[in-house]
Amino acid sequence: MSEFFTNIKQQNQVNIVELGGYLDAHTAPQLENVFSELIKEKKFNVVVNFEQLSYISSAGLGVFMAFIETMRENKGDIKLAAMKPNVFNIFDLLGFPLLYEIFSSENEAIEKFIKQ
Amino acid sequence: MLRTNDDILIKRNLTALVEFSRAVNSSLSLEFTLNNLLLSCFGKFLTTRGFVALNSKGFFTPAAYKGISREEMEKFPSISSGNDELAKSEMKSYMAGHNLQVCEPINSSRGVLGCIVLGEKINKSGYSEDEIEFLRTILNISATSIENSMFVEELRGLNRDLDQRLNRLSSLFELSKEFGALIDEERISKLLVYSLLGNFLVSSYSVCYLDETKLKVIESTIPKQPVLDFVNQINLQAISVPVGTDQINTNYSALAALKVELIIPMKYQNETRGLILLGKRMNQSPYSDTDIEFISSIGNLAIISLENRRLFKEALEKQRMEEELEIAKDIQKNLLPKEMPSLKYYDVAAVTVPSKQVGGDYYDIIRAAEEKLYLAIADVSGKGVPASLLMANLQAFLKSIAMQNLPISQATGLLNNLVSENTSEGRFITFFWCKLSTDEKKLIYVNAGHNPPLLIRDRKIRYLDKGGMIFGVMKTMVPYAEEEVELQKGDIIVMFTDGVTEAKNRADREFSDEKFENLLTGVSPDLTANEILQKIRSAIDEYVEGFPQSDDITMIVVKVL
Fold first, then answer.
1. What is the pLDDT of residue B3?
2. Which of B168, B197, B298 to probe by mutation at the A interface, max A CB count within 10 Å?
3. Most Cβ neighbours (<10 Å): which of A93, A105, B207, B426?
4. Residue A10 above 60 pLDDT?
5. Which domains does chain B have, with CATH numbers?
6. In 3-state terms, chain B is what percent helix, strand and coil (to 5)?
7. Do A99 and B175 lie within an 8 Å CB cutoff?
8. Strands B372-380 and B460-463
9. Which residues is B457 bridged to in the sheet?
10. Do β-strands B271-278 and B262-268 pair in parallel, antiparallel, or remain unpaired?
11. pLDDT band at B320 (very low <50, low <70, confident <90, very high)
């Protein structure tokens, strides 16, 4: 099992969170810390890059639900990008595309923020 | 000429049909097929409005529409696909109201698949017989394709359903694995919440849990106080099954005001130990029965984990308390005198046998001056740490007061005052002490409610019972009486706590004062204080036959030399 990791970078006022490895009940608190930290620093425009994420469980999805409202209340958003098909399937299955913008690449997601 | 025209028309129709047939059969997408059907009809009949409704559980349900606004489509009533008179007239009235002219059923070998409804032609010429015939042909060709697409759609739905169940199963598996490994309350509740959020797209929730007797809101985006107020007000056991939105609205208006749509009890051994409150799902779907079942499952998993954590903590606490008790016992042991004084006229021996718990027995030997020796024995009411604390307190007072060189009765009154200030309701100490004069055979004593020590002289017993009230009940109002006793060689004085005479055997019968006194009046005058002590101990041991004692056994024996 590949170790879960997060990596944060910034580009044009957009905060990019790169995820890799397995995001499940066990590793979800790590991602929670990342989002809490972003909110503390008032960084509300977030793109999550899933390119290196190989697995996500519904507990992992829960973390995105836990923070989306705070981001949106502060005129920001969490946009999702570059998911592997198996990861996208879980998001799709649980109805996330209704509530989240999902892009095929990180750049598209960033551009969407810039246009807004 | 006419024939040629007809030929051209037929040819054109045939080409259109072949094209259409190829198109609709090229895809298994229902949306594509229906769109194609509508567009083909629009092109063929030059109309701009129309929709296809499919038979869903006996009712026509619009599945594709063009040239008709969504608002118009939403007004489409619930019409039976049974082709009865009522259905016909309902369809007619909708068509009339929305500028639609033709309605044709789409049939397959299995029955009515649906119907197509088309608007008037642009040239307002109305549909000819031939055109209706052509429409029917198109519909016949489409029917198989629509049926297949519907079937595929249904399969897709089933697949999705299966995927969803699979996903939930893996969620349950994941959580039970995590919950089994965790003992941290915060992580348990976090994981529970993440799982709920991820699976149900909710962002408004509250989880509360009855930790022994205290109700705690452990995770919440709903304001905590109103939730606490609500749960404190109702009986938690009243919610033993999930409560849906309608019931919340009628029965629990406080929660309805917080936009709670679902209450799920978390049960442990068939008892509600917590609640999960959920708000609206962000995709607006209601909670289905399987949803509720799933939430109940993870809720119960979480409560088991929380309960295990609590029991684990309790066991740890108990272990810690036992360790503390051991330490307390140790301290208590250290409070007792370590060696007996060697005196010209007296031979002194003492023992205390603690029971299983930290007890309240106490004895002390205090050398106040060269010619004065205090012997004290006391029994603090109760057991355990509170009793031993009070005992340590008494010892501290006693040691300092003994040094004051006061008359013993006055000193006793002072001691009681000090103890009374330091005891709470219902606690008391029975206390006896005496001052031995080391340069002559004489003692002076005060007995504050302690079972009277025995003075044995010539096989006869005298009770040392002068004194006053037990310690700790109230401040000294009446001065304590003291009594001076002249001693003789061979006198035996035995001070003891009720653990001696009340030592019990397996049959729950006490050793008794009588046996004790008979034993003492029978001892040989040659025995030393320690030998007398051992004799009493073995008599008790013989009597109780190893039966564990609930009280400490404490004695001081003085033999006058």
1. 58
2. B197
3. B207
4. yes
5. 2-155 (3.30.450.40), 182-311 (3.30.450.40), 336-560 (3.60.40.10)
6. 45, 25, 30
7. no
8. unpaired
9. B460
10. antiparallel
11. confident
